[in-house]
Write a structure and sequence with these properties.
This protein is α/β, with parallel strands linked by helices. 19% of the residues lie in helices and 33% in strands. Strand 25 (509-511) and strand 26 (516-518) form a beta hairpin. Helix 5 (334-348) packs across helix 7 (387-401) and helix 9 packs parallel to helix 10. The chain binds alpha-L-arabinofuranose.
Amino acid sequence: MLRSNCIRWVGVFATIVLAPLLWAQQSASDGNRAVLQIHVDQPVARVSPTLYGLMTEEINHSYDGGMYAELVRNRAFQDNPRSPDHWRILRNGNARASMQIDHGTGPSAALSSSLRLNVEQADASDPAGIVNSGYWGIPLRANTIYAGSFYAKADQDASGPATMSLVNDNTGAIVASATVPSLTTAWKQYKVTLRTGQIATSASNHLAVSVTRAGKVWFSLVSLFPPTYKNTPNGSRIDLMEKLAAMHPAFLRLPGGNFLEGDHIAERYEWKKTIGPLADRPTHPSPWGYRSSDGLGLLEFLTWCQDLHMQPVLAVYAGYSMAQEHVAPGLDLAPYVQNALDEIQYVTGGTDTKWGAVRAKDGHPAPFPLTYVEVGNEDWFDKSGSYDARFVQFYDAIKKAYPKLQVIATTPVKSRVPDVIDDHFYRTAQEFFADTHRYDKTDRKGPKIFVGEWATREGSPTPDLGAALADAAWMTGLERNSDIVVMESYAPLLINLNPGASQWTPDLIGYDATRSYGSPSYYAQAMFSNHHGDEVVDSSLKGAGALLFYSVTRDAAKHKLFLKVVNASSKPQQLDIQLGGEHLPEGTATVITMSGHAMEETNSLSNPARIAPIESAVTGISSNFHRTFPAYSMEVMEIGLR
Ligand code: AHR
């Protein structure tokens, strides 16, 4: 025992006293050679288990035409009160028909208008109907089952059969079709199953619903779903969910962003109008220039959290909308505060509570976990200065009803101490490289920090390698300070790449109707999230170039050390890495490297993995080893410890 302690202390002496001298000499003589000392056994801060998460909102057709798997665009004819956008008339052969929005009838109080098809002439060989072009096409795959449905009513004359068909745009071939035997004079929902055969995957298709008799037919909620993630009805697109799942995010900040606030108070996110049967969701104008179907509503957000094992970070509307409209604190604001309490009860309440029972009726009896509630979004934009008083009203009511909830403020307030402050940063790569020490000196006694939106805004439509390296460099600072920075989420998350679909670049994940890819920044987020460890360990770096950044954490229970190194320089960086402490390396490491040739290099639909992490096994990991980090690279070394 004495002997082994003695050896250990000689080792520690050699490490602490002699090694730096040697390293200093080496680094001076090698020029570019730097020294990183890591004290494996000296944790200095806890890594927040919820550090890496997602931020989401309806922007860039993130949901409609993105995550939400619905393939029919403007399915309830609410997008434009004057004309049925994205629909055209179908007149085969001698068929004669016209269509218009009818504000006099609809399948529900929420959807009180519909599309009226006026058929003057149609028969079985020459049907008439309506055609939808989808969200930049209707993607179809071979041997796949699609769930079609529509609400319809007919006048007496038109109460014959109706057929839903999927048709190839280029050949006119009917890829799949199904018929309902007869429509009735009352509103009714019809469901069909459409099965494709041996076709090539393509988005060059349209959907048609046709009839074979003259008369009037009204339509609403014309819907087509492909298979969804976990086969959930009204569910999400599989490839996008898989990409998000691979990030292992800890939380989802929902439902926005500006999408929460709306341009006007009347256009805010009203969660109660996004739950229950689709026919009870009126849809609403989003601030990003198109109407939200709200098919992906509050319960779908929560199911998304459940599927990916994330917690919701629930942002509640707090009485400010972006056209400088606010609700006066006090009596005027009280119903909005109650609405937020109802929302929290919908998320967390038992089935014996009013809103927990509604959630159960909507199909989810079990409550969802909830730790954080955010009051508003970016309220520093509210020039009236009302946020302090609005926040107080929400904070007090939430804390009274739910004392355990952590309440997030969107900007500093004076009258209460929020549990967490949400900081947002959209910056250049240079700005982030220069800002990696932002939280080093933050008061540990003050509110925690949630970086709820941030991104290096370089590269378009998705971030390039330089942006990813700047993101990664800045994340080393977040991780190092994650005793105070409890959560971070890149924004925006998703972008539909079709012409006219987007409002904001760059975004983490790009897609069209059939393909998707992760940007280099997506991989940077995933690499950090998948190797975050639970403690920051003591370390110091000497002699490295200005564009070398690192973070070192460990997972004590799993005996693993995670060293993340970002070399944003155009030159490779050599590093002598000294691991001191009792828990010496096992000798091997798994290394995940992402690198490229230039800061501008990037991924695209046609080259989705040009910049992507590559995993390799490295041997020779001792308590003093050498590694060269390539130019324009980020690397995670997962080092096994004894
Ligand atoms: O992420 C895009 C927008 O940026 C968000 O909606 C808003 O919160 C921020 O200004």
